[in-house]
Amino acid sequence: MTAPVLELRGITKEYEGNRVLKGVTLAVRPGTVHALVGENGAGKSTLMNVLFGMPVIHETGGYGGEIVLDGKAARFASPADAMAAGLGMVHQEFMLIPGFRVAENIKLNREPTRANPLSRIAGSTLETLDIATMRHDARAALDRVGLSIDEWMPMAGLPVGHMQFVEIAREVDKKNARLLIFDEPTAVLTESEAATLLDTMRSLAAAGLGILFITHRLDEVLAIADEITVLRDGEVAGRLDPRATTVAHIAELMVGRPAATVRHADAARRAGGTPRLEVRELEVDMPGEEVRGVTLTLERGEVLGLAGLAGHGKVGIANGLMGLYPARGTVLKDGKAFALNDPRAAIRAGLAFVSEDRRGVGILPDESIELNIVITAMEAQNRFLHHGPIPALRLLDGGAVRRHAREMIRALDIRTTGPRQQVRRLSGGNQQKVCLARAMTLEPDSLLVSEPTRGIDVGAKERVLEILRQLNRERGMSLLVTSSELAELRALCDRIAIVYRGRIAAILPPDAADAEFGLAMAGEREAAGAARG
Amino acid sequence: MAERAAPAGERRGAATAAREALREIGIPRLLIALFLLTLFAVAFATHMDMAALITDCILRIARNGLLVLALLPAIQGGLGLNFGLPVGIICGLLGCVITLNAAIGGWAGFGLSAAIGMALAVPAGLGYGWLLNRTRGQEMMVGTYLGFAVVSGMSIFWILAPFTNPALVWAISGRGLRTTLTLTGIWDKLLDNLGGFHIGRVGIPTGTLALFALACLLVALFFKSRAGLSISAARSNPRFALAAGILDERTRVQATVMSTVIAALGIVVFCQSYGFVQLYTAPLLMAFPTVACLLIGGASVSRATLAHVVIGTVLFQSILTVALPVTSQVVQGDFSETARLIIQNGMILYALTRKSDR
């Protein structure tokens, strides 16, 4: 076997005590496509940031482990360093200048130039562009990636697919290019464009480049990869040979983990009680997590899990029900029709939501813990207010707020200096407890929780799951739990619905085999799921 | 070793504390306070009439307080510095002109002017808020130019409007309002003199100060009410607010209306104290010194408190009052207007560079 062009040896990275990479090792050989797959939050982006020497890594204390490029240890201080050493990156979002021509974009900042009288006096930045060479080089690069457009066309107005190829051509044109990284390159492409792109990647590899291919789309991985590394929770969960594996097996590795406690089907309540929430043909326009017709019933007192790979729409369901993204469809709450696209109506109907986007949606970072806990109840239910004639002008009842906040801090074990502390200063786990406290304050009968344990440490994780169990058992709340961690759902849920391409592919008991979950997430159980659901 | 280390640690602690305190006060605020003290010292050293000087300071503080307060709701609502203050000012001026035209004097005239002005400010604020929602992210720029446009448009209105009271219109043509309308004997100084008294030779405009204090109190209470908390929450995190059922498009409009209404009241109180109603281009640049007041108080584009309103008004208005007589004694010619422009525009520029503060 040839020596690898790039080796990562035991890469570790911590963000504020949270270990996001726990010793990742992988090697990319020249002439091969190496696929890196993993769920959102598995550590793929962090790994790429480490590799490229992004400032965010240095600002947060650097990384551990070793990067070896062409057999020599390398430590990149900036992305410019990494590129100079022969790494190229094809971005998910294009880094192209629309007002420039294709060739100008390809040669940007590396333009061939000729000296002229002015530049002899004022320096090389004033040299004349060698347009002919530029066009020639650009043409060659475009030919290598199989794009037949004229290299002198303006960038603006090119179809998205072509832009992607121009971006690749730019990386290929770099004379010292050794390794190309494709970060979710097919996400914005149509199927035929994606197929062409995969062909291009193959031929670039055949020409001797090493390719690191990051993606969610597992069928693409099987189609072109020579080696597969599966990342899960910052660790390598498995190295696979694409000829000897299946989509279902990869999916299983991505989401499955040895579950400490699996709830058994007989311990779990039987479905088929009274419906709490009936969802019919729900469609949600949440970018990246579109829901395309979900039909689902949440029973009274049940814990229903929503699982599925990233991008298939599991996250969109709760967001759509709560009115945070435009939604269509019919939803019955206790048999009564329910207004979509109206957060206040959802709260008043007895729903509460703990968002997957804690920092973006879950908290008011600059406000106090107590205000964070009561503000939704105050807004939607007019609680924690003094009496007064006009509801909107009633004053906040500081005493009642303080008492309630103290009670919640004790009940949920929020580690804080007091109810007046800014939520920004809390750890992720304690922020999550504040989010839970706010949802509990609404006294809902149905609680929608998304990614309840994402980004929080192990101790807090257990505590959050225990709180959810208590709410279900002691207060009889129906829970709809969306999670990328299958183990968590299997420990918590009565039933687990698998979302695939915006629809429910199957509903499985928590003690179903890993392989069954894998199959459902890979879309190979659609028929079976439809028959059951 | 241990003995030597301890004092070093203490020194470091003291130095950190000093730095903290300095950051809390803010270097610009400190410099301006020192500048003001220097002015007072010079005034004292040159045997100027200190009582008259201090009386003037307090009067100007009382006169301008409400206008500065009008900026607060806009910042709370996430709209930044309300350079569109003239929108509210014009409403207040309209209120004054309407009652003057009807020849209503005394408390009735003052009260009615304020009431009409604030009533007009509600639809004006709604329109202004609607515009700001359509030009998100450029509120300050849009406010500035809307203010200019409204003042200029109203200049035409002042000429063409069918006001007939001979005391208001140009004497020769009998059409079009004069640039300055006097309130002497109509309702000037009514509020200033309400319960007014003297401490030594220093006069206190009690009524105007009391109204400013009352308005501050009401604004503070409002931001502890449900509606007020919604406005703050939507500013602080619009996505969070949406999840709680608060539409930030609505709270932004509410904040704009509030700001515009207080500005309308503010200008009526200003005219009362000043004794004149100034029309045409007089309100054109009024937002700038007002904004500078608030910024000198320590506010930033995204954060302001009542303390900033009060401190800023006191510092800036005192400087304006004291600088003119003092500088004309020390240097030949009028340096005070130049000093005002440097301080005012320098403060605004400084605040804009510190947009990401806190």
Order of H and E elements of chain B:
HHHHHHHEHEEHHHHEHHH
* Most extensive chain-chain interface: A-B, 32 and 19 residues
Distance N terminus to C terminus of chain B?
39 Å
Mean pLDDT of chain A: 85
Q: How many strands in all of chain A?
A: 22
Task: Give a verbal description of the structure.
The complex is a heterodimer of chains A (533) and B (358). Chain A has three domains: 1-85 and 178-245, P-loop containing nucleotide triphosphate hydrolases (Rossmann fold), CATH 3.40.50.300; 97-173, no CATH class; 264-350 and 477-533, Rossmann fold, CATH 3.40.50. Chain A has 20 helices and 22 strands. Chain A is of the alpha/beta class. Chain A has a six-stranded mixed β-sheet with strand order 6-9-10-3-11-12. A six-stranded mixed β-sheet of chain A has the order 18-19-20-15-21-22, sandwiched between helices. Chain A has a four-stranded antiparallel β-sheet with strand order 2-1-4-5, covered by helices on one side. With 358 residues, chain B is mostly helical. Chain B has one domain: ABC transporter involved in vitamin B12 uptake, BtuC (Orthogonal Bundle), CATH 1.10.3470. Chain B has helices spanning 2-25, 27-45, 50-69, 71-76, 85-101, 106-134, 139-160, 190-193, 206-222, 226-236, 238-243, 248-274, 287-296, 306-330, 336-353, and strands spanning 180-182, 197-199, 202-204, 276-278. Chain B has a two-stranded antiparallel ribbon. The chains are: A alpha/beta (533), B mainly alpha (358). At the A-B interface, helix 12, helix 13 and helix 14 of A face helix 10 and helix 11 of B.
